[in-house]
Design a protein that fits this description.
- Chain A is built from 16 helices and 19 strands.
- By secondary structure, chain A is of the alpha+beta class.
- Chain A has four domains: 92 residues, 2-Layer Sandwich (Uridine Diphospho-n-acetylenolpyruvylglucosamine Reductase, domain 2); 123 residues, Uridine Diphospho-n-acetylenolpyruvylglucosamine Reductase, domain 3; 108 residues, Alpha-Beta Plaits, CATH 3.30.70.3450; 117 residues, GMP Synthetase, Chain A, domain 3, CATH 3.30.300.
- In chain A, strands 12, 13, 14, 15, 16, 17, 18 and 19 form an eight-stranded antiparallel β-sheet that branches.
- In chain A, strand 18 and strand 19 form a beta hairpin.
- Chain A is globular.
- By secondary structure, chain B is of the alpha/beta class.
- Among the domains of chain B are: 132 residues, no CATH class; 142 residues, Rossmann fold, CATH 3.40.50.1860.
- Helices cover 47% and strands 6% of the residues of chain B.
- In chain B, strands 5-4-6-7 form a four-stranded parallel β-sheet, sandwiched between helices.
- In chain B, helix 20 links the parallel strand 6 and strand 7.
- In chain B, helix 19 crosses helix 20.
- The longest helix of chain B has 18 residues.
- With 89 residues, chain C is of the alpha+beta class.
- Chain C has one domain.
- A three-stranded antiparallel β-sheet of chain C has the order 1-2-3, with no helix packed on it.
- The chains are: A alpha+beta (502), B alpha/beta (431), C alpha+beta (89).
- The interface between A and B is large, with 57 and 44 residues.
- The complex binds flavin-adenine dinucleotide (FAD) and iron/sulfur cluster (2 copies).
- Flavin-adenine dinucleotide (FAD) binds next to strand 3, helix 5 and strand 10 of chain A.
Chain lengths: 502, 431, 89
């Protein structure tokens, strides 16, 4: 039903009328370069994911018109913003039209009285904050992809922020947005009807529903965001521990301390420390008894950050930590966006440098389960590496998601030598991803805390994780997108239409 | 799988390096030069492809205008992988590579350069890739009409066909120096780029007279040709090499040991293209004039005293700031000039600024280049300055045009210094 | 002043072994032990200016990132010193 029809000249000319001919891209390079995101995939199968064409609309109205055309012709539509998403969300599975929203990147309004701004979905947070800086304001959505992901993609994934323990995550920071439904109808979704409301109790709370759906329900075009005063002060101490268990204890004590300026804490396990010793200037010279690390981060008014910071320093000292010094602490925190996807971290079993793609499995895990999940995950990764000399265990980070320490975004980073991937190793990898997800679900966590879970492997476990809620998801999908044009194939949502097809 | 020895071909100077595993690209119907290109660029391309994180996007001046993912460094590298996989051909990709000023922002901001490039001695080289892909297109007979014409005219005249009143030809290349009595030859010569020699003649006049004021001896070339850099940037490598050979021969014949360079583009050519062409044989010292002037001021050999009552900002030329890390010396010079009110924008913020003038973009995509210039001047306008100072002659014409609507003068740093030294420069600055 | 000279640029300082896998040529700039890049990915020809430019730019970038997020960075060492002086041991 949703196999893309050959896009007729008729469709192309309708689209050209909608967005302007020069914004309908049909060249091979336009299509091939929108068939990928940073998540590894066998290079030899690239052609499977190429769209039929790309449109680059400039307004909500243009997006609505594109959607009406696509719906009328039953053509798949895949929204694409920064193209940094790590679950293949912005990659078409059934060809069709890529709606690339990057041209919609203007700052439409800055409201200093209510501390909001309204922006196009194609704007980047770093660029937005350059515009906000003269007003002393900041939009604090801070993923590691801060320099490259865009507001529409943050909505499409319901993203996770490194300093979310203090300022909230995308869902808390996006107050409302214009949303184009698959029929072409435009609605405003937010906490209530007013665009600048942060808490409402009117009707169903639809904002959550229309965030994190990976483009399967429609397209966000314009968003109103909550702003904070640019913090007076930043503090980011890093500490070393001789063993994982004491670091694990310490990180939760920091989260439990109730410090108001606490913006997040991170726990690095032994594998992560070994990995950093390969090429990170801060850790190459560290003595061998550094086996695990913790960092805590605070933002806010200088006096408050100082007071809270002293508490952190005391807690860590009492937990047996060694402070790593200002240079490492400050430098590592400022480098927080840059140290993930660096291919030359990759090593063969013989220790040779090879370019590896970064895969990040990003579950939500409760603190109590971290030690066990970590061991089970590493076992899966080690098994892969033993079988194929193209996988590499890059260690685990666990980051607080909330100020209370309830759960941690827990990521195992695995390097994959894409140049060498073949069908056999890919199949083994998909199984490993499934196994990793199974561990998270079995430990009462969630498969994904930030990226989403629609890649091969983990997606099979989504109905297991969600249970009856997954059935409601199917009902919603069918109701909102009767023709299954929005990003078809993702999240097993085809099941919503199975009875109709038969 | 076992580790195999690397292909033992000498990597060209400052090139992709990254000798490939053997036996991978398999031909896929590509021409022999393309096959060779793909094996040379394979690891460099994968090093980006396997990151794919696009930290390069928002600093790219072209992307800021077009927002079109085809124009990203990510795509520039991914295309190589797609060619290797047999999915794309040089014909498919060639035109996309015109969308680049070779400003170097992307490759510097790329974590694979900024965080690990020095560690692995392997960094992202988008600029080199764009140059090489343009050259590969030319080698495969795929030409961009504007580039082709520009390089034909350059070849005919031995200088770029810059627009202006001075006819571009060999007889006129030293016209700018009229009345200054600069000798020919000597151990040190001043090299003047085509834009400054034929159009913005006030600039080389300023430089020449400042150096003379400091008692710094230099001469001019016997027969200066275009440095060849623009041909290299647009993919006409054979021509670039011919020009380079001519200039090197001219220097050798005159016993030149040191070349002073006032144009950042020439500085790149002499410190990146010439070493690549000549390798170990390249024994000429290349001195950037802004660095020299900053030093002469620091040593007390130049003391600007005439106050200049302007409120300025400084435009970091891409080829100095991003590509060479030269940003302090121009600020030292500005700091020495009395009377200026300086609203500086730090050099990291300026990674995402560009005049739009580089690498032939205005030839093939004038509308994008113009928009980049306008964006740059919008940034300046927010600072409420009356003057933007640049250190790159190629940036000054387009920025001055964009500055007109915003009531901002564009002034060259060498000329500003000359003014503060009380030198009446002469020559022309504007059409 | 000295400008660019090819031979100078292509004569890096000698390497000092720092760990099994890393060496140091320029002060505070570590590099991979070149023997790890002999099988699959060969190192590029890297003039000295480029190494120094990247290392300096990294520092500038990190400093920029601090300023981008907050007006000041608080020294945790200072806080630790205060704690130590308030309650020794
Ligand atoms: C180095 C690196 C670090 C990362 N760190 C983090 C992190 O710390 N936290 C985190 O949350 N994520 C992180 N990510 C993942 C990624 O950056 C986020 O998922 C981000 O939200 C994606 O934004 P994007 O603009 O790139 O969206 P895209 O990749 O273009 O799209 C993501 C999804 O949203 C959909 N979508 C895009 N635009 C719209 C729209 N306008 N309306 C509706 N749906 C839309 C797409 O169809 C797709 O399913 C990281 C990625 C990288 C490469
Ligand atoms: S050039 Fe660098 S920043 Fe850009 S996608 Fe490639 S690796 Fe990432
Ligand atoms: S060199 Fe400059 S213009 Fe070219 S791709 Fe990089 S950032 Fe863009």
């Amino acid at each position: 039903m949703t196999i893309a029809p050959e896009l007729s000249d008729q469709v192309v000319s309708e689209l050209a009328d909608a967005v302007g001919g020069q914004h309908v891209l049909t060249s091979k390079t336009a299509r091939y370069n929108r068939a990928r995101v940073p998540a590894p995939f066998p290079v030899h199968r690239w052609a499977e994911r190429v769209p039929d064409l790309v449109v680059m609309p400039a307004s909500t109205e243009e997006v609505a018109e594109v959607m009406r055309i696509a719906n009328a012709h039953r053509i798949p539509v895949v929204p694409r913003d920064g193209g940094t998403g790590l679950t293949d969300g912005a990659v078409p599975e059934r060809r069709g039209i890529i709606v690339d929203v990057k041209r919609m990147n203007d700052v439409k309004a800055i409201d200093t009285d209510n501390r909001t701004c309204t922006v196009g979905a194609g704007i980047n947070m770093l660029k937005l904050n350059e515009v906000l800086a003269p007003y002393g304001l900041l939009y604090p959505d801070d993923p590691a992809s801060y320099p490259c992901s865009l507001v529409g993609g943050r909505i499409g994934t319901s993203g996770w922020s490194l300093i979310g323990s203090r300022y909230g995550h995308s869902r808390d920071l996006v107050l409302s947005f214009s949303f184009v439904l698959p029929t072409g109808r435009v609605i405003r979704v937010g906490d209530g009807g007013g665009p600048k409301v942060s808490k409402s109790s009117t009707g169903y709370q639809l904002k959550h529903l229309f965030m994190g759906h990976q483009g399967t329900l429609g397209i966000a075009t314009e968003a109103t965001l909550k702003l904070i005063p640019k913090p007076e002060a930043e503090l980011s101490p890093f500490w070393a521990f001789p063993d994982y268990d004491s670091a694990h204890q310490c990180v939760q004590k920091l989260a439990h301390a109730g410090v108001a300026t606490f913006a997040g804490a991170v726990l690095f396990d032994e594998w992560k420390v070994d990995y950093l010793r390969r090429d990170d200037e801060a850790y190459i010279p560290q003595p061998a008894d550094v086996r695990a690390l913790v960092c805590a981060v605070a933002y806010g008014n200088a006096d408050e950050v100082r007071a809270g910071g002293k508490r952190f320093m005391r807690i860590a000292r009492d937990a047996g930590a060694r402070y790593l010094g200002d240079e490492i602490s400050q430098g590592d925190w400022a480098a927080r966006h840059d140290r993930y996807a660096t291919p030359l971290h990759g090593r063969t079993r013989a220790g040779q440098v090879v370019p590896m793609s970064w895969h990040c499995e990003d579950s939500a895990i409760n603190w109590t389960d971290l030690p066990q999940v970590r061991l089970e995950w590493h076992r899966i990764a080690d098994d892969l590496r033993r079988r194929f000399d193209m996988f590499d265990d890059w260690g685990i980070f666990a980051y607080t998601s909330a100020a209370t320490g309830v759960d941690y975004l827990t990521e195992i980073d695995i390097g994959i030598w894409e140049q060498e991937l073949d069908d056999e190793s890919w199949t083994a990898w998909v199984q490993a991803k499934k196994d990793i997800a199974e561990v998270a679900v079995r430990h009462g966590g969630s498969i994904s805390a930030c990226h989403g879970a629609c890649r091969d492997g983990e997606v099979d476990l989504v109905p297991v994780e969600l249970g009856g809620a997954f059935d409601v998801m199917l009902d919603v999908k069918r109701a909102v997108d009767p023709n299954n044009i929005m990003n078809p194939g993702k999240y097993l949502l085809d099941r919503a239409y199975e009875t109709e097809v038969e | 799988m076992t580790d195999v020895p690397p292909r033992q071909s000498p990597a060209p100077e400052e090139q992709a390096g990254g000798a490939a595993d053997t036996g991978h690209n398999g031909g896929n119907g590509h021409s022999p030069v393309t096959v060779e290109f793909l094996s040379e660029w394979r690891n460099a391309a994968y090093n980006c492809y396997s990151s794919g994180h696009k930290f390069c996007r928002e600093v790219c001046p072209v992307m800021q205008v077009t927002r079109n993912e085809n124009h990203t460094p990510t795509a520039f590298h991914a295309n190589v992988v797609a060619m290797e996989q047999g999915e794309l051909t040089v014909e498919d990709v060639a035109e996309d590579y015109v969308n680049c000023t070779q400003c170097g922002a992307c490759e510097l901001r790329c974590p694979n350069t900024l965080f690990t490039g020095d560690f692995y001695r392997f960094r992202t080289r988008t600029v080199d890739l764009v140059k090489r892909m343009r050259a590969l297109a030319v080698d495969n007979g795929v030409h961009q009409p504007g580039y082709q014409r520009w390089n034909e005219l350059t070849d005919e005249r031995s200088h770029e066909p810059v627009l202006g009143d001075t006819p571009v030809s060999q007889e006129h290349v030293r016209d700018w120096a009229g009345g200054l009595d600069i000798p020919i030859g000597g151990e040190t010569v001043l090299f003047v780029d085509c834009e400054a020699a034929f159009y913005r003649t006030s600039l080389p006049r300023a430089v020449a007279q400042i150096l003379r004021r400091a008692g710094y001896e230099f001469g001019l070339m016997t027969e200066q040709w275009c440095c060849g850099g623009p041909a290299a940037e647009m993919g006409y490598r054979d021509q670039a090499r011919r020009f380079a050979e001519h200039n090197l021969a001219d220097w050798r014949a005159a016993g030149v040991r040191r070349v002073l360079v006032l144009d950042p583009h020439d500085y790149i050519t002499f410190t990146e293209d010439y070493p690549e062409f000549f390798g170990d044989d390249f024994d000429i010292e290349i001195v950037l004039v802004v660095e020299l002037l900053a030093q002469l001021i620091a040593e007390g050999r130049l003391t600007p005293t005439v106050p200049i009552e302007r409120t300025i900002t400084y435009h970091d030329p891409c080829r100095l700031n991003k590509r060479k890390g030269v940003w302090q010396e121009p600020r030292q010079i500005l700091g020495a000039i009395p009377g200026l009110t300086f609203h500086d924008v730090d050099r990291v913020t300026q990674w995402s600024y560009c005049s739009g003038a580089g690498a032939g973009l205005p030839i093939e995509r004038p509308e994008i280049a113009r928009k980049i210039s306008e964006n740059r001047m919008d940034e300046a306008a927010q600072l409420e300055v009356d003057t933007l100072v640049s250190a790159c002659p190629w940036s000054e014409r387009p920025l001055a045009e964009a500055g007109q609507d915003r009531a901002i003068d564009v002034v060259d740093i060498h000329e500003l210094l000359a003014e503060s030294l009380g030198i009446d420069v002469g020559g022309r600055t504007r059409a | 002043m000295t400008g660019y000279r090819y031979h100078e640029q292509h004569t890096p300082p000698p390497a000092r072994q720092v760990t099994d896998v890393a060496v140091e040529r320029f002060e505070h700039i570590f590099e991979v032990d070149p023997k790890l890049m002999t099988a699959h990915v060969a190192q590029q020809l890297f003039p000295n200016w480029d190494t120094l430019r990247i290392a300096a730019s990294r520092g500038d970038h990190l400093e920029w990132m601090h300023r981008h997020w907050a007006y000041q960075v608080i020294s945790a060492q200072e806080l630790l010193d205060e704690i130590e002086s308030e309650q020794p041991g």
